[in-house]
Structures are given as structure tokens and as C-alpha cells.
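Morning F.,

Quick status update on the modeling queue. The single chain you submitted on Monday has been processed. Sequence for confirmation:
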Amino acid sequence: MSDIRIATAEDQVLLDKEAKYCSYGDTVHYIEPPRIFSRCEGSYVWDTEDQAYLDLQMWYSAVNFGYANPRLNNALKKQIDTLPQIASQYLHKGKIELSEMIAVDAKNKFGLDGRVHFNVGGSQSIEDSLKVVRNASNGKSLMFAFEGGYHGRTLGASSITSSFRYRRRYGHFGERANFIPFPYHFRGPKGMTKEEYGSHCVQQFARLFETEYNGVWDPKTNQCEYAAFYVEPIQGTGGYVIPPMNFYRELKHVLDQHGILMVSDEIQMGFYRTGKLWSIEHFDVQPDVIVFGKALTNGLNPLGGIWAREELINPKVFPPGSTHSTFASNPLGTAVGLEMFKMTSEVDYGAMVMAKGKYFLEGLQDLQKRFPIIGDVDGLGLALRCEICGPDGFTPDKATLDYMVEEGMKGDMLVDGQKLGLILDVGGYYKNVITLASSLEISYPEIDLGLKLLEQLLVRATTR
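C-alpha cells below.
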């Protein structure tokens, strides 16, 4: 095991400039000194010393199809040479065809007509969805969301994100959401199966509608005070918590009874992360709104958007000018998005991702048997979780995971004579969960390599 790395002279010059000139508002230094990266390809990034790191978080699931994916990169290059930019109020072929692709897919899967509206990223698209649901509910501004949920850090998005720290300095822009417990079975009541706990959580939510004195429902007018329930079908920042398969079906039944819309936030779990285009597809429900971003362009362009049911977003109810961004539906982003859809239509990505995810999860389960500090592993497709705990296998242990992350970034682990680093993402309610979001293009040998590197970090953590 090496000592803590010291920044090179060249890197230190850059870090000194960062300290003086860069806002830290959009920066988190998970390790000191932070690495400065110079290139990337496939599942790897390299720092300025040309040290390779296997990346198992892929830019928070934005780069689902691997760094520098040749096909997607070429789509961007080709578009640069034809129509690289045009104001978003003007039409271009890519916007129309990408909208059609998403809307037709939704019609085939959910049986619902709908339309697509673009913006420049996930948080901005959440903001647009808030406009859509507030408009559709005659201006109701109250929302339900989940404990552990994350929907962004703009003023509106942070109001439906459960972490107070994202709102603390700025007050409230509108009303804060009513945060409802998520069926986090590993830390739920003992003695219930996962499915029983899911039903229990729905029943507790349904209690809010028993009488007017529960605070959200007027039985005399048959009206709810809340417009929508924002859900991440698989919790992202909350620790890749996988709910029971019966949960959303039962929840949607309650929502439909009381005229509450379901908004599915697919920003982190969309585009085959879980083995389906949208993670909500696993749960046999029809969402009213879908919000997407990140991997639509494989991280090459900040394009996001929403799909909403026709009656919520048609021009009569959501007319021109309802929301706007100069760079929304830009032709570079839509060109990459179209190519991504074409690419994923030529290969059964669903089957491929599920097979790789099953293989990866089995490897994590093997590590769990050998290392008691792994309290829980779970996954759906290539959205996988590994919860690091104390020796009892349950008490959250953030400090140990922080140590593992720092060790992984030293770049000094040896596998078959090759020196490597490992990039991990930290999530969870207690910041003790490794949230694994590898490239969907990851090879089986690279999965094996990732498991070997994880094993080395676990050995270091348990013998330090």
C-alpha cells in the first residue's frame, strides 16, 4: 500500500489556479489532492501521469455507452459539419425525429399518446415538468416525493429533493415536497418480506386519504391538495435502492384514485441502465410524465427533456412559450440522441445489460459472503449497490467507504502486473453505499477486474 500521492508540479500549478479562480459551488473534492484527468476511453480514464482508472460510476450514469464511444462521437462530428447550431425556436430534423422516436416508444409500451419537450439537462427538465403538472392541476404547487430522493439542485428541483442541505442557504422557492418513506427493505422493519414491506409503505401513504384530518384530502369535494408524486423508480443518490416489484403498481392505484400524477424521474436510471429504456417499465405501471437526461447523449451534450401524456402537454393546454431555453433541442444533442436510439435498436441491450448485471451481482454476492462489512448487495441490470457497514453487517460505516474511495484513487493496485486505480461513487442515506454504474459496454473480463479491485480495497479496509 502506497502513501498518499502528492500532486505533480504541473498539476499543482493548475490546482493553485483552481483555488483562486474557480467557484467551488459546482465542485466536490472527494480526495486530496484531487486528480486531474487527461483522456478517457471505454471504461477507463487516465490522469495527467497517464495512470489508468477503471471507472465504475461513469459520470453518475451519464456515460452509459462508454467513454469516447466511436459511433456516438462520430454522430456528433458529422452534425458539426452540417448543422452545428440553430436557435431552439426554429425547427430541425433531429428534434422532430427524436421526439417521434421517444413518443412512439411510449405509445407502444404504455398505450398512451404523448409529446416530448426538450431542455438543456436534467434539473432544467425537472423544472419544465413542474410547470406541466402545476398547469394541469390548475396551479397546485404541492408535490409528493420520496425520502432519499434526488431530482436536482435548481431552486424548483431542490424543493422536491429530500436533502435539506441543498435548500439550506437559499430558502424556499415555492413549497417543499411532502417526503414519503421509500421501501428501503434492508433498513425496514424486520419480519416482513420485501413485497410485504412495499405494500406496508403504500398502505401508510394511503392513510393520508382516509379523512380530511390527515391533511391532504377534502372528501367533500373529492380533491387532493397535491398535484403529483415525483418518483425515482430506482433511487439514485439515495443508494440505488431497488423497491419490490409490487410497490409502484400499488402506489399508482392510490394516486389514480385521488387524481395525483406520477412523474418518473429517469435522469439517472434511463437509457438501459436497468435493462430497459425506462426503469419504470419493470413495474407494470403507466407514468403520466417521464423526465430524462444524462445518457441520452452519452454525456456529449447537455440535452434532457420530458415526455408527457397528450392531455397534459398538447398546445391547447401548454402553448408555445410555456417554457424555453436558448439551447434546448440543439442539433448536436439530438443527433447523438438519435444515433443512440439507432444503436440500441440493433442489439438487444435489455438482454445484454440484464446478463451482465446478473454476473456482476453474483460477484458482489460472493464478496458479501467473504467480507462481513458488506451488509447488503442488490441490483437491477447494471444499477448495483454494495452497502458498507460495521462488523455487525448493519451499522452504516461511512468512514470505511471513504477510506476505500481514497485508496481506489491512489492508482496503486496491482492485478496481473498492471497498476490500476478504481473510481467508485458514494451514495445512500448514510453515505455508506457504493453505487455501481459501469458502462453498459463493459466486458466480462472488465467486470472480473472490477471485482478483483473491489476485493483489494475490502482487504485494505478490513486490515488497516
